Amino acid sequence: MQSGLMTTYQNPTQNRNGLAWGLSALLMAFYVDLYFTDHLDTVASALHLPSKWTFYGLIYTLAMCIGGWFMLRKHGNSAYHRWRTISLVAVQSVLGFLLPLVLDFLGRPSYYFSYFFPLKYDILFPGTLKDMPVAVACWFVFGSLVGVPTLVYFQGKRAYCSWICGCGGLAETFGDPWRHLSDRSDRAWRIEQVSIYTVLALVLVMLGLVVGDAYAADGSAIRDLAGHTKSFYGFAIGSVFSGVLGTGLYPLMGSRFWCRFGCPMAAILGLIQKFGQFRITVKKDMCISCGNCSAYCEMGIDVRAYAMAGTDIRRASCVGCGLCAHVCPRGVLKLETRAALGPHGKIEVWTLDL
Amino acid sequence: MTQPPHFVIVGNSVAGIEAAIALRKRDAAARITVISSEHPHPFARTSLMYVFCGQLSLKDTQFYPEDLYDRLRFVRVVGRVRSIDPARRTLHLTGGQTIAYDTLLLAVGSTAKRLPWPGLYDETPMFVHHFVTLEDMRGLDAAARPGMSVAVIGGGLVGIEVAEVLHLRGLRTHFLVREPAYFPIALDSAESEVVAAHIRQHGVDCRTNASVTAYRKEGGRVSLVGTSGPLDRPVDRPLELSVDLVVGAIGVTPATSWLAGSGIAVSPDTGGIETLPNLESTTAPGVFAAGDCAQVTWIDGSRRPEQLWYTARDQGRVAAAAMLGDDVNYRRGTWYNSAKFFDVEYTTAGFIPYSAGSAALESASPGSTSGGTSGCGGWQTWYQHVPGGPVTQRIVVRDGAVKGFNALGSRWDHQVWKRWIAERRPLGWVLAHMNEARFDEELVAPFRILPTATLVDGA
After folding, report:
1. Residue in A7, A334, A352 closest to B25 by CB
2. What is the CATH number of the domain that holds B167?
3. DSSP string spanning A202-229?
4. B103 has pLDDT over 60
5. CB contact at 8 A, B341 and B198
6. Predicted pLDDT of residue B340
7. CA–CA distance, B396 with A112 (Å, rounded to integer)
8. Which end of chain B has fewer CB atoms within 10 angstroms, the N or the C?
9. Does B329 fall in a domain?
10. Which helix (H) or strand (E) holds B158?
């Protein structure tokens, strides 16, 4: 069933026009207000919520529930999309909202158990870990260094990015109507490779500095540097890139702007995926070049080029949302995990140097 | 130093552009000119329905990047060829331009077959549409308004696509199928009924046995008169439909009428350009044909055009090799195809006898399931309908070896099926291994043999 998609370009908010720009500006204004003013604290206290972050969590979860409902209406005929959407909404509702809220009401420190390093960039800072109960600290260390990477090796990045992650969850539900707006040009691909690995390098340098700082003497230069790096990263990447732009640009640049160009977690998991067991298998000689797969790839991958070439897809950026396979009118694509590597590689025409 | 050869390709859809790319890969120096009047960039005609309804933009359907011509140094000519002089190896464009070629590829595709009712196009041109070219699509797009009623004539793949998008746009859609069942060329009566029920479930008025014998112009509308419906219920048979639009989807015909008198032989039956096995014209050396406009040899030995996307691509590549002087022939391997009827996907491979399954199934007695290969030329048909949805599988067998597969509502790798056919696998082995050919999304229940599955003599 694709009837939910069939009028995509006729919906004014999905067409990168004035309305979309306005919507984008509104979303960005909301995030600026959230991150850089205390205005929403008053809203939160009027609603008897502990802080503006709880209020934000409430809106976020509601947006995912409503977006998830629409997602299920469009693609719920597919078991893969049904379970994926339910998983994302459930993880956000329980681990991303209700549990922290309950912990807070009980007067306990609250944790978001579904976020790991490096997406949650301060979770492995020695100071952060020291303040946690041992079991909680173990959960985050194990999850960041062993659990999620292992899962991704066997199941692909999708296991985290399209089944668990809150950021991915918002993109897959609330952001779904704009997935076709991801830039598919070669240029965007080149920019993506530079920007995402820059953020990854930055987060690793920051962790190194902060760990170094934990063992450094008072007044050492590393302390200042670590402090500056933390505040720069928190502002530029944590607030502006992932929040203001990451969500604010949904109606203009597609739903995975942050995941594609910025998320350091996506960068690491992508490298693991590249050497792991996940791929999109292409049924040879059945592609009719229609373009649905490429158009609805939220990561801007030119899926059709692989489908036309009959080449299996193993791209670091693929979050395994599965929409390409679902919208293909000829069933040419199949997400799968397999130990044996089939032939895969580059797309022929692009490598032609004539 | 001799000048590099000049390859000219008329038509920039899949056959033409694949040939151009194949030529460039082999010959870095050649001059390659691509002439097209439809659109400056190759686009996927297969997505016209998606562009019409708004699921894709036209740009989304361009299957190569817009700088392809620059990257591969193709000379783009936007225009329509008026005539060819194969003796002088020159082309004349409608604008008066003349282009000389060394080797020519005609990949001009096809246009919609016109509805056969005399005077229709003269008297009611604004009501009658087709859905093959970009121009067709734009014409229908401008004419089709929500609330109108439309008759889609023709029970094939384009017909069902256009019925789907017109219905989605909010037109009252009547889908008139001449045959007793939908798409009998590929589906048997049981499969066809599954599809027809699905079409009706979507709210489209699907009528089989529909034959329009006359039309009347009534102000701003057209009235279609004829018969339709089950042959055994004559009371319900008279058909009278008053509609705002008529869409003719009764097939396509090679766009070759302009070649008359050029010396390039065209089949009087099909309109396809007569070709040698290497796709060169039988009468004009240096002229090749590929795609919808080329007359090729089918696996059953018949000569006709093969109007499919994937074979157009293959023909373009073979023609390019032949144009470079390679000793190649175009050979169609085992038949395969796929389609989508509203939400129901369809995959087929191998030999599914034309329209035969229905008759065989109806005549077969229930006790014949163990009948071995006796009678009916050694053919047998295995079939099951998975309850709860439009999901069916059919396998035809001859002399103990599988020959063809038809599946609705689930996805299959036709390459695996083709291999099994080539390996002459027996039905029992194939049924035990069916899940290896499965290509559905994850979390879909595996294939299993239901107690209701039947095996009958005949195909």
Report:
1. A352
2. 3.50.50.60
3. HHHHHHHHHHHHHHSPTT-HHHHHHHHH
4. yes
5. yes
6. 94
7. 57
8. N
9. no
10. helix B157-169
What would the pLDDT profile of A10-69 be if each residue is shown by its tens digit?
888 898 999 999 999 999 999 999 999 999 999 999 999 989 999 999 999 999 999 999
Q: Are residues B272 and B367 in the same domain?
A: no
Q: pLDDT band at residue B332, thresholds of 50, 70 and 90? A: confident
Distance from CA of B11 to the nearest CA of A (A): 17
Which chain A residue's Cα is nearest to B48? Answer: A290
Residues of A in contact with B168 (CB under 8 A): 3, 6-7
B187 Cβ contact partners less than 8 Å away, ≥ 6 residues apart: B181, B195, B346, B406, B408
**Scanning the structure block, which residue is given the tokens 């929500």?**
B146
Residues B44 and B58 reside in one and the same domain: yes
The helix (run of H) or strand (run of E) holding residue B457 is strand B454-457
Give the model's pLDDT for residue B322: 98
For chain B, the helix, strand and coil percentages under 3-state DSSP, each to the nearest 5: 30, 30, 40
In a domain? residue B403 = yes
Provide the residue range defining the domain that includes B440: 336-457
CATH number at B398 reads: 3.30.390.30
Kindly state the tokens that stand for A97.
């909202």
Give the gap in angstroms from C-alpha A206 to the nearest C-alpha of chain B. 39
Question: How far is it, in rounded angstroms, from Cα A60 to Cα A71?
Answer: 16
Who among B44, B336, B443 is closest to A79 (CB)?
A: B443
Contact assignment for A283 to B414 by CB distance below 8 Å:
yes
Comparing alpha-carbon positions, the chain B residue that sits nearest to A5 is B55
Are residues B237 and B280 located together in one domain of the fold?
no
pLDDT tens column, B408-418? 999 999 999 99
What are the start-end ranges of the H helices in A11-51?
Answer: 18-36, 39-46
Give the whole-angstrom CA distance, residue A289 versus residue A297: 15
Q: Hey, is B12 helix, strand or coil?
A: coil
pLDDT of residue B124: 78
B404 and B316: one domain?
no
Assess whether B143 and B238 both reside in one domain. yes
Distance from B369 to chain A by nearest Cα, in Å? 33
- B87 and B164 in a single domain? The answer is no
Give how far Cα B374 sits from Cα of A128, B357, B365, B369, B425, Å.
79, 17, 13, 11, 19
What is the tally of structural domains in chain B? 3
- B45 lies in some domain: yes
pLDDT at A297: 97
DSSP letter assigned to residue B299: T
> What average pLDDT does range B104-131 have in this prediction?
91
pTM of the model: 0.93
Q: Tokens 């950026």 appear where?
A: A317
Q: Specify whether B21 is located in the same domain as B51.
A: yes
Q: Do A334 and B441 touch (CB under 8 A)?
A: yes
Beta bridge partners of B36: B78
C-alpha distance across the termini of chain B, in Å: 63
List the domain boundaries for chain A: 8-186+235-269, 276-351
Of B265, B293, B323, the position where a domain reaches its end is B323
Residue B300, pLDDT score: 79
Residue pLDDT, tens place only, A142-159: 999 999 999 999 999 999
Mutate to test the interface with B, among A9, A278, A280, A352 (most CBs of B within 10 A): A9
φ and ψ at residue B275, rounded to 5 degrees: -130, 155
Residue B331, classified by CB atoms within 10 Å of its CB into exposed (0-12), middle (13-18) or buried (19+), is exposed
Residue B342: partners with Cβ closer than 8 Å, 6 or more residues away: B160, B164, B198, B199, B202
B213 and B268 together in one domain: no
Name the 3-class secondary structure at B295: strand
Q: Which of B198, B219, B248 delimits the end of a domain? A: B248
For residue A155, report the phi and psi dihedrals to the nearest 5 degrees. -115, -5
- CATH number for the region A276-351 comes to 3.30.70.20
